[in-house]
Structures are given as structure tokens and as C-alpha cells.
Amino acid sequence: MDKTLHIIGGGMAGSEAAWQAANMGVNVVIHEMRPKVETFAHQTGNLGEMVCSNSFRSDDDEQNAVGLLHWEMRAAAGLIMTTADKHRIPAGGALAVDREPFAESVTAALRSHPNVSVSDEEITELPTDGNWIVATGPLTSTALGKSIQAATGQDHLAFFDAIAPIVYADSIDMSQAWMQSRYDKGETEEERTAYLNCPMTKDQYEAFIDALLAADKTEFHEGETAGYFDGCLPIEVMAERGRETLRHGPMKPVGLTNPHQPEEKAYAVVQLRRDNALGTLFNIVGFQTKMKYGAQTEVFRMIPGLENASFARLGGIHRNTFINSPTLLDSRLRMKSRHNVRFAGQITGVEGYVESAAMGLLAGRFAAAELLGQEIPEVPLETAMGSLVNHITGGADAKTFQPMNVNFGLFQPLEDVRGGRKGRKIRYKGYTDRAKEVWQQWLASQS
């Protein structure tokens, strides 16, 4: 029997799966078609390339579910979290990274591992023999997508991910903008000033919304529908839901004080987050868009402080495909109809870098243990990992299945803990304390 584990896709999930399996002693081949076959969103052939935001979101492991997921991945010696910590840049309470060195480090770690090899040949059909993990992410190639569809007998569900633009820092007018994290969040001065803020008056905001709604947008291809994931809505789609939507979303002015006009409260604020360690690039937070390039430069230069902005990358839009995991996968991420094939990452219906890498971590461990004749217990439901994998493999309603971020709503309830908003802080701490204890026990059972 072939003891090699083959992984299709070298993104967050594929990279993490390869690392976990290789460290357990299994030979791994990563099949990554880039750079030989390019995608709309990727810029390089590096493994673990970040194509949207450079943020892994909150790093609070006591009051935030994604922060807890960070903690669990660190405890499992995860490659993605280890590398993220190495290339961390200030982002208030969030974990953001310098994206290019991050991907270069992930690539170097995997290519130098004695149990890992990388192939740039495109896999166009779902394999019938051998041991495989499909971790092709939101940009699964057309040929492989059709093969998966034929093998599963299910129509793919699709939505569109939109990419936020990146601005050169030296083109921002700092006589209008200022550096401050919302509510001055962060333990150091650098963290408390991690975000760049551009204020708007009511008139400026209204003019911006008018321009946003009138701008030329990217057209969909015939047969495509715009079924967006709510966590990654294009700003123009949010604006179409109501003129005040952005002001209560990514452009909310709360927790910020403009030092240029401290007595005047901004009506709305556009935030930019540092995108690299040098601080030369900033991405516009929450500004995913499907506006055409010419329209983007015109509309975004209406933002005070960005009148002369120079863009390192404009926003874009791409199709994201995922399978109906509650119907197709078991609790160990195997296809119910074909146990030699596992799925991991965004293609399973999790949303976000961290969630994708987490499913890769589990798939890699499960696959390696099976090849080595070892038994790994199912992931405890009390953990962030267990809550998420349980949701996509059975906890969600298959008829209405949509991509999901990790959140405390997926967790097993705590006994004798107050519900509602007033009891939330104690409840969240209870979730995270319980999860850490159980997760450590689960890891110890494999040592």
C-alpha cells in the first residue's frame, strides 16, 4: 500500500495539512499548480500566499472564538500560526502579518522539510487511488471542479469573494489622517496606533455613497449569481442595503478621536491597516469591491487623505466554490463515498484564513494517523476546532449550508452560566477555559 499523502493545493489548508502529516513521519507531496497555472487573485507561486486581507483577525484567546482557534493551532505546533507570529505587524488586538515574508517563510519551511516535496503539475481529476487531501480553496480550477461535481453528484454552491485595495503609505495625506486603533486598543503604543484613519463629514459621506452606488461594476458571467458571504461583502453591495450601512459597518466612527480636530466628531471614518512590516503599504479595511479599476481610483480618492492616493493593488472579485460538506463529509473530513479522499480549507465551507488552516491541521493529522495505523479520537466538540468541524460535517443544515467563520454560537452550551449580553464576558471566558483544557488533553492523547 502506498504510504504517501498527496495534497492538492498549497494555500493555508494545504500547507498546514502537509506540515502536520510530515511531522508525524508521513511522506507528503503538495500538488500546487501555481505559478505554472495562474489564478485571478494570486500574485506568486509561494505556498500560503494571502490573496485578500493580511489579517488573521482577533488574537484574543479568552474573549474571541478566532483568537481561541489561534491558541489551539499554536498548541498543536501549527506552521501557519508559528509563521504568522514570526512576521507579525501591529494591528491593535488583531494578528496581522507582513504577507510576502510570511508566504516566503511558509514555502521555505515546507520545501526544506525532508518528508515534503512539491509538484507544480495541475491535478485535473479527483483521484480514485491513493491517499489525498483536496485543499484547493476558493479558486478550485475549472477542470478539477467539474470532476469533484461529477464525483459528488452535487451542484456546487458558489459566492463571490471581493479583494480590498492596497494604498502606498507615502501617498496618504497625514495632515488629514491620523494613526489610532479603535478605543486605543493594544498593549503597546505601536498597537494602539496600528490603524490609519480618514475622517468624513456628513456631506462627504453622502457624496461618497452617491459615487459608490453610481460607479461602474464588474459584470457577472452568464449563469453566475451574486450569492455573497456576509463577512466579505463588497462595499457597494453594503451601500445598496441602505445609505447608513457602511457608517455602521467598516466606516463606523466610534472609538476614534481626530487629533487634527479633537472637538469635532467625524460622521464616518475609513480605516486602513498596515499591510507590511515596513509600513509602506496599507489596505483599506472592509473595502472589498467589484467596481471597475477606473471607478475605484475615482471613488476612493474622494476619501479625505486619499485624494492623491497611489494604489499598489486595486480591488477585485473572484468566484469562490465550496462543497455541501454536511452531506458529503464525515467527522474526519473524508468523503463518505470515497474514504481515501479528504477535503480541507475553504472548499469545505469554512470562511477565513484561520478556519481554513485549522481544517488543514485536522485533515493532515487524520490522514497521517490512518496511513501509520494509528487511532486519533474525534475532535472534542468543546474546542474551537471541534465546534467548527462539527458544524460543517453535520451541525449545519445541508439545505441551507453557507460558509461559516468560527464563533461561540457553534460551541456546546455551558451549564449554570448566565445567558444574554450581560453574561457574555463570563460565558466567553468559560468557553475558552474549557476548550483549552480539553484541547490539551486531545493533543496529549496522541503523544
Structure, described:
- The protein has helices spanning 12-23, 65-75, 79-86, 99-111, 142-152, 189-192, 202-214, 235-240, 293-300, 325-328, 353-372, 384-395, 424-444, and strands spanning 5-8, 28-31, 55-58, 88-89, 94-97, 116-119, 131-134, 157-163, 166-168, 178-179, 195-200, 268-274, 281-284, 311-313, 316-322, 334-335, 338-343.
- It is α+β, with helices and mostly antiparallel strands.
- It folds into 2 domains: 5-156 and 323-444, FAD/NAD(P)-binding domain (3-Layer(bba) Sandwich); 162-319, Elongation Factor Tu (Ef-tu), domain 3 (Beta Barrel).
- Strands 6-2-1-7-17-16 form a 6-stranded mixed β-sheet, with helices on one face. A 6-stranded antiparallel β-sheet has the order 10-11-12-13-9-14.
- α2 (65-75) packs parallel to α11 (353-372), α2 packs parallel to α13 (424-444) and α3 (79-86) packs across α4 (99-111).
- The mean pLDDT is 90.
The 3D shape can be described as globular
Tell how many strands the DSSP assignment holds: 17
Element pattern in H and E: EHEEHHEEHEEHEEEHEHHEEHEEHEEHHH
Q: Determine the oligomeric state from the structure.
A: single chain
User: Strand sequence of the main sheet, in spatial order?
Assistant: 6-2-1-7-17-16
What is the name of the CATH superfamily of the largest domain? FAD/NAD(P)-binding domain
CATH topology group of the largest domain = FAD/NAD(P)-binding domain
- CATH architecture assignment of the largest domain: 3-Layer(bba) Sandwich
Main β-sheet: number of strands, strand sense, barrel status? Answer: 6 strands, mixed
Helix percentage range: 25-40%
- Class of the largest domain, according to the CATH hierarchy? Alpha Beta
Structural class, judged by helices and strands? alpha+beta
Strand fraction band?
15-25%
Overall mean pLDDT stands at 90
Give the N-terminus to C-terminus distance in angstroms. 25 Å
Uncertain segments: none
DSSP helical segment count: 13
Provide the number of structural domains: 2
What is the CA-atom radius of gyration, in angstroms? 22 Å
Cofactor: FAD
Keywords: Cytoplasm, FAD, Flavoprotein, Methyltransferase, NAD, NADP, Transferase, tRNA processing
Family: Belongs to the MnmG family. TrmFO subfamily.
Function: Catalyzes the folate-dependent formation of 5-methyl-uridine at position 54 (M-5-U54) in all tRNAs.
